Amino acid sequence: MAAIYSLYIINKSGGLIFYKDYGSKGRMDTNDSLRVASLWHSMHAISQQLSPTTGCSGIELLEADTFDLHCFQSLTGTKFFVVCEPGTQHMEALLKVVYELYTDYVLKNPFYEMEMPIRCELFDINLTQAVQKDRVVLLGR
Amino acid sequence: MGYNIGIRLIDEFLAKSNVSRCVDFKETAEMIAKVGFKMFLGVTASVMNWDADGTCCSIVLEDNPLVDFVELPDTCQGLYYCNILSGVIRGALEMVAMKTEVTWIRDMLRGDDAYELQVKLLKQVPEEYPYKDDE
């Protein structure tokens, strides 16, 4: 029972730079994932305008019947969001970990161009390890 | 060069130091001097000489690890050896919506007694979404 269905990373301008799916359900092909990512980027921006209070930083959690979507936006505008089973705990912590992995393995990779799709092996390896660790902790409870 | 380093460094700084959004430029400058320099160079700097509107300040470093063992030869007397640091700060702040200008005021390699960087906030550029451009 995979708790996470998929992970997306969007750059400042709303383009999808990383997509990974873990579950057996909800797999999308590249075009669909690109479309969904841009949709989310726009929704996130609109939510900041809709907010009745000032200083809103956008949607952090979306709860639906069959999934939860947790979103984390860094102060530089890069968004990390994960689609998971309803009620999954500690997704914010996982998103923070993914952010750190992004800074360590993607930004420090000299061949990586900013705002472009991520194609960094070390990032993939470490990300898989982090998600696995998270899964083990969840199953152990 | 420093600019390219700065745009990537800012994410690492934000991820590792867990700081929240700074309320104003003063806080930003303090963050850079105390947390940023400490994290990346291992030295703390101090912030002084704030101007009247709070948009320009100096960051003073007593000790600069970049210049350990460095001496400027005669042919390079006009060189700003540490200019990479000004690019780093400028790049990093640009990624968090602030346009700044960073220059060296005092530089020990050229004979002064300390390292002083002047950081001047030119403007804040928050992300604007073009909702109203059809009007």
Summary, kept brief:
Chain A is built from 3 helices and 5 strands. Helix content of chain A is 40%, strand content 20%. In chain B, 34% of the residues lie in helices and 21% in strands.
Written account of the structure:
The complex is a heterodimer of chains A (141) and B (135). Chain A is α+β, with helices and mostly antiparallel strands. Chain A has a single domain, classed as 2-Layer Sandwich (Beta-Lactamase). In chain A, 40% of the residues lie in helices and 20% in strands. Chain A contains three helices and five strands. A five-stranded antiparallel beta sheet of chain A has the order 2-1-5-4-3. In chain A, strand 4 and strand 5 form a beta hairpin. In chain A, helix 2 packs antiparallel against helix 3. With 135 residues, chain B is of the alpha+beta class. Chain B has one domain: Muramoyl-pentapeptide Carboxypeptidase, domain 2 (2-Layer Sandwich), CATH 3.30.1380.20. Helices cover 34% and strands 21% of the residues of chain B. Chain B contains three helices and four strands. A four-stranded antiparallel beta sheet of chain B has the order 1-2-4-3. In chain B, helix 1 crosses helix 3. The longest helix of chain B has 17 residues. Chain B is globular and about 50 Å long. The termini of chain B are far apart. The model of chain B has no long low-confidence stretch (mean pLDDT 85). Classes of the chains: A alpha+beta (141), B alpha+beta (135). At the A-B interface, helix 2 of A face helix 1 of B. Chain B: This is Trafficking protein particle complex subunit. Chain B: Keywords: Endoplasmic reticulum, ER-Golgi transport, Golgi apparatus, Transport. Chain B: It is found in: Endoplasmic reticulum; Golgi apparatus, cis-Golgi network.
